[in-house]
Amino acid sequence: MYKHITKFALIKPFKIKTMNLPDYLSFGFPLALFVLYLAYLHYKFKIKTWKHLFKAFIGGTLAIVLVIIAHELTKINDWYYYNYTSLRKIVFYIFIVIAFCAELGKFIILRYLFYHEKSFNSPFSGILYGIAISIGFSFTAIIIYATGVIGFEKIKYLTLFLWTYPLANIVFGTIQGFFLGMGKIRQSTIIDEATALGIATFFHALFYFCFLTSNKQLFFIPIIGSIFIIFILLEKAISLQPEIKKR
C-alpha cells in the first residue's frame, strides 16, 4: 500500500486541474445542502437562531484560511510538500495540514463566536451550529481542492471526493458540536474540547486518506463509522434536551 500511496501522492508545482461538469456542479452542492438544512429545521423545529446559523455558515467559509496557511508553511525547508515521497510526510500532511487545521479552524469559529450565545445551551444546539459551520467550510474547501490550490494532485476519484466531502463535514461538525455542548453543560471544557477536536480530526484524516488509495474497501470504514456516530450522538443530544420544541 505504501508504494501505491507514494505513487499518487507526488505533487507538482501548482496548476489548475482539469475538471469536468460534475466537478463544477459540486461547487453548488454545499449551498444546496445548507438550504435543505434550514428547510428541515424550519419544518421540524421552532428555531429562533436563524441569524446565528447564517453567521455560522459564513464563518465556516473562512475556516479554510488555517489550512492554506499551514499548507504554505510546509514549503519551508525539508517539509516542502511537493517533495513528499515518504509515508511519514504524507501522514503528517494529511493529519496536520488537511485534517487538524481544518477542524481547528471550525473549532475556533464554533468555540469563540457561538459558544457563549444564549442559544448555545446543549449538545443539540452545538450540533446545529457545528453543522452550519461545516457546510460553510466545505463550500470554500471543495473549490480549493478541486482547483489544486492545496492537497495532493492525483487524488483518487476526485469527483466522488468533491460530492461526498460536504457530507463528511456534516459528520465532523456533528462531533464537534456535540462535545462542545457536552462541555458546556458538564463544566468540563478542556476534556470535551480536546475530544471534539481529536475525534473530528481523526475521521477527517481517515476520510481524506481513503481517496489516496485505489482500495475501495477502505471507503466502508468512514461510511459505516459516520452513520454510527451521527445516530448515537443525535440520539444522545436529543435525550439531553427534552425541552426541544417540535412543530
Topology:
Layout (H helix, E strand, L loop, with lengths): L1 H8 L11 H5 L3 H16 L5 H13 L1 H10 L13 H28 L8 H24 L11 H29 L2 H22 L9 H20 L8
Helix pairs in contact: 3-7, 4-6, 4-7, 5-6, 6-7, 6-8, 6-9, 7-8, 8-9, 8-10
How would you characterize this protein structure?
The chain is mainly alpha-helical. It is built from ten helices and no strands. Helix 6 packs across helix 9 and helix 8 runs antiparallel to helix 9. The N and C termini lie far apart (51 Å). The N terminus is likely disordered.
List keywords for this structure.
disordered N terminus, 71% helix, 247 residues, mainly alpha
Structural class: mainly alpha
- Strand/helix succession: HHHHHHHHHH
**Mean pLDDT over all positions:** 82
Proportion of residues in β-strands: under 5%
Described by strand count, sense and barrel closure, the largest sheet is: none
Please tally the helical runs, counting DSSP H or I stretches of 4 or more residues.
10
**In percent, how helical is the residue content?**
over 70%
Can you tell me the number of structural domains?
1
Low-confidence segments, ≥5 residues, pLDDT <50? 1-14
State the distance separating the first and last CA atoms: 51 Å
Radius of gyration, in angstroms, nearest whole number: 18 Å
User: What is the overall silhouette?
Assistant: globular
Summarize the structure.
The protein is mainly α and 247 residues long. It is built from ten helices and no strands.
